[in-house]
Specification:
- The protein is of the alpha+beta class.
- The protein has 12 helices and 24 strands.
- It folds into 2 domains: 245 residues, FAD/NAD(P)-binding domain; 192 residues, 2-Layer Sandwich (Cholesterol Oxidase, domain 2), CATH 3.30.410.
- Strands 1, 2, 9, 10, 11, 12 and 24 form a 7-stranded mixed beta sheet that branches. It has a 6-stranded antiparallel beta sheet with strand order 6-17-18-19-16-22. Strands 5-7-8 form a 3-stranded antiparallel beta sheet, with no helix packed on it.
- The radius of gyration is 22 Å and the shape is globular.
């Protein structure tokens, strides 16, 4: 295969589908969209939102393992969607806009032009494409949690707005009825509409980016070379974008030499600054049958401050009308088929990890080391300990207490901060929000991989548009922010 296009978009996931569609809308453009997985069009297993748990650990999931953790749970498996739409075709469609305060943090960190006022028009563009709905608040157990949170002093919030205060609410979802409104559904479907403007390569594995001096000219795939006359946009996510750059000889020279890859461009920040929302869990067995009326099992949640004086909530809960036992059962805790869960997570975690190559073989998965709970001040650990305590306070409110037969994990014997911390770290999970590994920053920031227009530093005709560009973790589920990044990248490329 040897083809030539104006633009090559590598990765048909959340942001990649947006970038490719917006480029293909421009007259006379020839755009190639390369996706490692299949199309989602017509696949009810993907399109039916309620089915999302059944996509985990299948052929539609990269299902990445992580490195052993010195202070956390090394059994965590990171789901990543392997199909058009990427993780927006694979997740539970919880939809938040990037908080204004996080965008100001980004701007202060060197992301000039990403302040809330500059980003707002691109939020509006996403709104024009993506259908956003709230679930019907019909689940009786969900309503009990909502009432318990209000009784504990948390006001009702409309989560369609800016999240900067504690409160409880039902989640906004990118869906249309029972169908998920992924970036693929919202921007690409029907695929037949594009004609020759957009050429879609599914099941297409990219091995490296090809350079001619400082200029990116194409990509090597398993089936041959594809060339780009204008630009290449990498949209492979926080694991696979740095992996692809490293395989291309772009990254920290010392690491590239370790794995035997010739250094094409020393860029020390590639694969650094790996961020996430580390998550604890508390599971209960229900005292009566858990209602089955649900859109996607995790329909509402809560933001909280773990200490007085905070400007922004540092703790987020997801409330699930199912037990979340994927990491508690292997650790020896009991479970049930009739239960529910609260999952406190660290809204703006301080621990940072790395993504590295396992070898020079493109088929090998990357070496992913989150270094969970290693921040020097113990912030992440303290937030989750406070989260388990707050979950128990919520469970003690009359509205929710009547639903509880017993606490399954960690169980009533686990009470001290030390015991809670040990439990949380041993059974921690992820909210599947990896980010930051090709971070955006200002000139002179040696750790920055892309500039504020998403251009790869030191090279020409190559950009990154996905969650890897996050300078810092934002305090909400980040999927809609990736839609916005796709819109922003397409605007940069259009030269407006």
């Amino acid at each position: 295969m040897k083809s030539q296009f104006d633009y090559i978009v590598v990765g048909g996931g959340t942001a990649g589908a947006v970038v490719a569609a917006r480029l293909a809308e421009q007259p006379g453009m020839r755009v190639a969209l390369l996706e490692a997985g299949p199309s989602d069009e017509g696949n009810e297993a993907i399109l039916t939102l309620r089915n999302w748990p059944n996509l985990l650990q299948t052929d539609l999931d990269f299902d990445y393992r992580i490195e052993p953790q010195t202070r956390g749970n090394g059994r965590i498996r990171h789901a990543r969607g392997k199909m058009l739409g990427g993780s927006s075709s694979h997740n539970s469609c919880i939809a938040f806009w990037p908080p204004d305060e996080d965008l100001r943090i980004w701007e202060d960190a060197g992301a000039e032009g990403w302040e809330p006022e500059a980003v707002r028009p691109f939020i509006q563009r996403v709104c024009e494409k993506v259908n956003l709905e709230f679930p019907e608040p019909v689940n009786e157990l969900g309503r009990a949690f909502f009432a318990a949170a209000q009784a504990a002093g948390f006001p009702a919030h409309n989560f369609a707005g800016n999240i900067n205060q504690p409160g409880v609410g039902w989640f906004m979802l990118n869906k249309q009825g029972r169908v998920r409104h992924s970036s693929s559904v919202a921007y690409l479907h029907p695929l037949a509409q594009w004609g020759q403007r957009l050429t879609l390569f599914t099941h297409c594995f990219v091995e490296c980016v090809l350079l001619d001096g400082r200029r990116a000219i194409g990509v090597q795939t398993a089936n041959g070379v594809i060339y780009a006359e204008r630009e290449i946009i990498l949209c492979c996510g926080a694991f696979d974008t740095p992996k692809l750059l490293l395989l291309s000889g772009i990254g920290p020279a010392e690491h590239l030499q370790e794995v035997g890859i010739p250094v094409q461009h020393h860029l020390p920040g590639v694969g650094e600054n790996l961020l996430d929302h580390p998550e604890g869990v508390i599971n209960w067995e229900a005292s009566r049958p858990v209602p089955q009326e649900t859109t996607q099992l995790w329909e509402l949640g809560l933001f909280a401050n773990t200490q007085p004086g905070l400007e922004l909530p540092d703790l987020m809960f997801h409330f699930g009308t199912e037990p979340f036992d994927v990491n508690t059962v292997p650790a020896g805790y009991p479970t049930t088929t009739n239960g529910f869960a609260l999952t406190p997570n660290v809204a703006r975690a301080k621990s940072q990890g790395t993504v590295r190559l396992r070898s020079a073989n493109p088929a090998d998965p990357p070496r992913i080391d989150f270094r969970y709970f290693t921040d020097p001040d113990g912030h992440d650990e303290q937030v989750l300990v406070a989260g388990i305590k707050l979950a128990r306070e919520l469970a003690a409110q009359p509205a929710l207490k009547s639903w509880i037969a017993r606490e399954l994990s960690p169980g009533p014997a686990v009470q001290t901060d030390e015991a809670i911390s040990q439990y949380v770290r041993r059974t921690a999970n992820t909210v599947y929000h990896p980010a930051g590994t090709c971070k955006m920053g200002a000139d002179g920031d040696e750790t920055a991989v892309v500039d504020p227009q998403l251009r790869l530093r030191g090279l020409e005709n190559i950009r990154v548009a996905d969650a890897s560009i996050f300078p810092t973790m934002i305090g909400v589920n980040p999927n809609l922010t990736c839609f916005v990044i796709g819109e922003r990248c397409a605007d940069f490329l259009s030269g407006k």
